[in-house]
Amino acid sequence: MTIDMSIPGSSGLLNAVGKRNMKFFSNRYVLALTGAAGIGGFLFGYDTGVISGALLYIRDEFPAVRDNYFLQETIVSMALVGAMLGAAGGGWINDAYGRKKSTLLADLMFALGSLVMCAAGGPYILILGRLLVGLGVGIASVTAPVYIAEAAPSEIRGGLVSTNVLMITGGQFFSYLINLGFTEVPGTWRWMLGVAAVPAIVQFVLMLFLPESPRWLYWKDEKAQAIAVLEKIYDSDRLEEEVELLASSSMHEFQSDNTASYLDVFKSKELRLAFFAGAGLQAFQQFTGINTVMYYSPTIVQMAGFTSNKLALLLSLIVAAMNAAGTIVGIYLIDRCGRRRLALTSLCGVVISLVILAMAFILQSSSSLCTAAANGTCQGALGWFAVAGLALYIAFFSPGMGPVPWAVNSEIYPEAYRGMCGGMSATVNWISNLIVAQTFLSIVGLVGTGLTFLIIAGIGVLAFIFVALYVPETKGLTFEQVEQLWKERAWGSRGNCQSLLGSTA
Questions:
Q1: pLDDT digit string (tens) for 269-285?
Q2: Is Transmembrane among the key words of this record (predicted)?
Q3: Residue 15 pLDDT
């Protein structure tokens, strides 16, 4: 089905928007919506982080797991499989049934999966629970950014969506606290995994009293309900402007009986460009090595001469805290510096820090550089060099390449495809995550740790080029302006005359 997506009077749309100066903390209602939706991000972070500590005690309780590395890998990775499935299907669920119902479904998956894991009598029931939790993670990874973005004023949209990323990193930090806190409690791992049901239930109850996304309601022709929500976000002058933008856009959008399909993403030049930029950002977020650096952090500390296992757990807390703190910096910068500039700056620092890490490992493995007498001092210095590289990596990655891919993907797609394309790009993220997790140690075994980090640094350079060429700046733009931007990128001066759907390259 093809339709004309050009907006009446769109040639002046980019200049027709009035002054937009809402501040981040100026509307408590928007902050409440963001906080409630962000619980999904918290669960996302908690459930992906807690298994590292819980697995130590699962192995002690189940001999079959202790003696079977495949079972251990399956317990860890089954949540990732569920996340891929949840993200792939979650986009369609978002567009068909709305952001609110999608969030409620994710909460059911979180709570059910947590309780199944808590009560598991064997490893296979535990794996089932991990799959259910993974489905919740996948759906939440699509839904929360879109729900927040569609309720957020354009001038603070990036910061509000990045708050969800802060909740993810906060969930990871909290999972490490739980891992430490329950070490001496009977049934340790059951508490670690089962406690996630509590925030899921809290979010479920909160969402029952919160509205559906106003843009989704307007798109589904529930205009009165949409305007009622918008009235709580904007003053009267701004409300009139926002409704006019919605009306002019929806005049040529799909209505509630739409037949949007996944094939449309590849048939339409505008959608292809947007999806290429969004999915590319998600892939590079994983391939620039955040999970490998987090994984290897205990080894880096051991290089510095600290070998205590408790110190390794403490390091996990410190790294997670740095990640969360960096995300707060990103929330402040993303609507001031812009998504594109923040990503490019982040990638510059990521590449430099990866080179530092690589050189530390390469020099450490080259024993000829240190005499026998000075070997300990030399190795210690290299270890601190590596720790500096780790700290620099987290400091640059967390404000930029942490939140930017999620923020950009929440705002670059048309309403009829926002959930679908967001789900597809999130699936790319999870698949990339799986590829990195499954290949990192193999590559280390083949070429060594130092060269592996150099390879990741090379990928960081490619990511910089990709962002510079294919990712436009969307800071402060309305959704309608972003759609027009992609039309102009696809068709140049003909952008106002081309249809969004059914157009081919």
A1: 999 999 999 999 999 99
A2: yes
A3: 44
